[in-house]
Structure prediction request, 323 residues.
Amino acid sequence: MSRKPVDIGDPDRLYTVTGGRSEADDAFDLVTLIVSECEPTAGMQSEHTRILELCRHPTALVEVSAELKLPITVVRILLGDLHAMGKVSARHPRAAESVATLPETALLQEVLHGLRNL
Amino acid sequence: MGSATSELPAQRTPLADAAETGLKIVVVGGFGAGKTTLVRSVSEIRPLNTEEVMTQAGQGVDETAGVERKTTTTVAFDFGRISLNQRMVLYLFGAPGQERFWFLWDRLFSGTLGAIVLVDTRRMEDSWYAIDRLEHLKTPFVVAINRFDSDEPQFSLDEIRQALALKDHVPMVDCDARVRSSGKEVLITLVDHLYALALSQEGTS
Prediction:
């Protein structure tokens, strides 16, 4: 069985993966963290299965894209579908309560602290 | 694991389950300036590569054609990751600095904390467009001079500042992109700069 879901060089096949759509949902940032809310089920589209397996731990959209070897736009569409079905949740950048309420300086201090501890 | 027969990627290192917010820093620079090297030296994962397929109207792309048509362009970029703590994870993107990739920039840069312009002094002109664009987008940035072994001309930071027409407030730092501690210093220089900017803004608001 081929591991590559699609040949990324062929736009026609990308349309097949996304059901003919090319407009992606911009709500998902490159670093939005995706978390599976359920296990894959039999008969599910193979890309959906892969995403649900991958996102058992929080995984950024851009990592999903790299792991699935699919362009960002295609992954946005796939994630949009899974999200609409409630199969994944999305942790958008700085939407988390602990960060959203943080002043920019406090946020940056945390970043600095993290970097210094590397 | 048999490396010769297996195509499987190295085992992924998952994020902490408590990870809740992703942050972005973009590294820009000309071809061969060392963007991927810098990302690799500080990243906790082997840098990954992905691509964006951009469909755009033909205007400005092939002006001689004079015909409305759509062009599909694929732009590849690398990225790495640093878990700052249990909740926050920083993604570093290596973006090509050439003008023809402008359309990728807006997407990569939206919501970014700031940018690092990585300069190879043998090809300083490769940084002009990136700096121009960052200033236009009002994205805060620092300039890191990647000092390779073969960096013969050894321009001083002042000379480079002049050559790049950099304003005085833009921090500059020497680095060796291959060295983790050096890459880390570049990141800290940027975030220090961002912190100073944020502090002065909070002071005025």
